[in-house]
Amino acid sequence: MTIDWGVAVQAALAATVTGVDVRADMVKLCAEIAARSGFDRLFFEAALAGNAKASVRDVIIALHACDTATDDALFQGIRANADLIVAAPCCHKQIRKQMKPPPMMNDILKHGVMIERVAETLTDGLRSLLLERSGYSTKLFEFVALEHTPKNNMLVGTRLKKPTEPEQFEQQIAEIKAFYGIEKQHLETLLKKSDPT
Question: How far apart, in Å, do the first and last CA atoms of the chain sit?
Fold first, then answer.
């Protein structure tokens, strides 16, 4: 495959980008910088990820969106049928608070550091499965060396032309949640609320 870089650059220059952050002062500062720099297709919005107004989304990128804000961003991408969803998750409080270690793992997961790591793995693993159930192929990998930050996972979802049947993921998600005593996961809740059936 040959890339026509002229076409690629023109497409990039025609893109409209909206940055979303909950901090109004940061949004104001970024908007001022964009205006001074002449970036007339770069916008900023003060909102929670789940309440952002931007309607057309080909690519969603969420960097260190804390706790369930990552799920909100993933949901925005799924709902918009985005071609590409990229998320660098941050903390994993929702799952951590719910976890009830299975009896065989009580002595391992009594240590805070261990349960934190398992909560992170479960949270991002469930997100990956939920993306796959929603018609995406996924990759989950380390994108920054561990010595720089422990929050270094990158979850990438690429929309499939022919999605896999969602039913094949249902049992696996249910079994994982049951094994660790997890009652709800935010992305799953959002997807169920939006499902017309």
Answer: 41
Q: What is the pLDDT of residue 194?
A: 83
Query: How many CA atoms lie within 13 Å of 138's alpha carbon, on the beta-carbon side?
Result: 23
- What's residue 176's pLDDT? 94
pLDDT averages per 10-residue partition of the chain, 197 residues: 61 73 87 88 78 71 82 91 90 88 90 90 94 95 70 88 87 94 94 78
**Burial track 50-66 (b if 16+ CB lie within 10 A, e otherwise):** bebebeebeebebeebe
d(CA 53, CA 90): 23
Question: Is 181 within the bounds of a domain?
Answer: yes
- What's the DSSP call for residue 81? T
| Residue 151 pLDDT | 66
Number of domains in the chain: 1
Please tell me the pTM assigned to this model: 0.81
Q: Are 100 and 180 in contact (CB under 8 A)?
A: yes
Residue 5 is assigned to a structural domain of this protein: no
- Residue 88 sits in which domain range? 48-194
